[in-house]
Design goal:
Layout: H1 3-24, H2 27-35, H3 44-52, H4 59-70, H5 79-85, E1 88-92, E2 95-99, H6 101-104, H7 107-119, E3 122-123, E4 129-130, E5 139-143, H8 147-158, E6 163-167, E7 181-186, E8 194-199, E9 208-216, H9 220-231, E10 235-244, H10 250-255, E11 260-266
Parallel strand pairs: 5-6, 5-9, 9-10, 10-11
Antiparallel strand pairs: 1-2, 3-4, 7-8
Helix pairs in contact: 1-4, 1-7, 7-8
């Protein structure tokens, strides 16, 4: 493990401990919960120094805390619970509607979800295992407008070698010619023909692309984005969404069999 990875792990562990402290409202209760699962017990002073940033765990203790936080031991760190805690969810005509704007404005909660989405073992909707941080992703793609905050935060978490791009619903010909735009047309639930547009230069041949969005409804726009990335010679590795209203993923998975479609909160 190189030095950069170790530093990243230390910072992530401390960040998640701070998030848990906010949920537990007590360092002592958090300490007790941790010490029931690790062999190298923490003292109250250890935990206090980590939370204050005066020290960081290292060696075996770092490894144990990392594995513990990536597990589902803490219910407060399960995706569904974090999203429910920081979103507005209501039921309309037996369907759940969600507003994730509160989550996107809470940096600590948002980055907790993102870090775990990158480093936890996840499962696609058809049951395939994936760890996104190990997929060689070098580009994040999303849709305007609501997916941009989520995508930008993921790119920032993955480091300076990962860029983020977003598709427009209409091209702007004042700075690029029509021929310089890639496009993909689709029909959403209302039946009106719409398009997604992305400058061709933003996706390079062979780039491994993670497609993200906050909320997916029918899946038509996500399908169009997958197709657009493919047409521009990128490789759509996975789709990651916070919340999905979709009931059936068969068609997308049949059209893109190598794609892993991951939903953190599925209705």
């Amino acid at each position: 493990m190189n030095a950069e990875t170790i530093v990243r792990r230390k910072l992530m562990v401390v960040s998640k401990l701070r998030y848990l402290e906010r949920r537990y409202h007590s360092q002592q209760k958090l300490l007790e919960a941790i010490n029931t699962k690790v062999s190298q017990k923490l003292s109250g002073a250890d935990l206090s120094r980590y939370l204050s940033g005066k020290a960081h765990p290292s060696g075996k203790r770092l490894d144990e805390l990392w594995d513990l936080l990536l597990s589902n031991y803490f219910k407060e760190l399960q995706f569904r619970n974090i999203i429910k805690k920081h979103s507005h969810i209501i039921e309309i005509d037996n369907n759940l509607q969600i507003d994730v704007s509160y989550l996107l404005s809470d940096a600590r909660a948002l980055y907790t979800i993102i870090d775990f989405a990158l480093y936890r073992k996840l499962y696609s909707v058809d049951g395939r295992e994936v760890i996104l941080a190990e997929c060689g992703i070098n580009k994040i793609a999303t849709l305007e407008v609501d997916g941009i905050a989520f995508a930008a935060a993921i790119a920032a978490s993955m480091g300076q070698n990962v860029d983020m791009v977003y598709c427009r619903k209409s091209p702007t010909f004042d700075f690029l010619e029509r021929s310089e735009w890639g496009q993909s047309m689709f029909k959403p639930a209302d039946g009106r023909l719409q398009g997604l547009f992305l400058p061709k230069k933003y996706i390079k041949d062979g780039e491994r692309v993670l497609i993200v969005d906050d909320v997916v409804n029918s899946g038509s726009s996500i399908r169009a984005l997958i197709k657009l990335v493919s047409n521009l010679k990128g490789i759509p590795v996975a789709v990651l969404v916070l919340y999905s209203h979709m009931k059936d993923y068969t068609s997308i998975l049949n059209d893109f069999p190598d794609l892993k479609f991951i939903v953190l909160y599925n209705q």
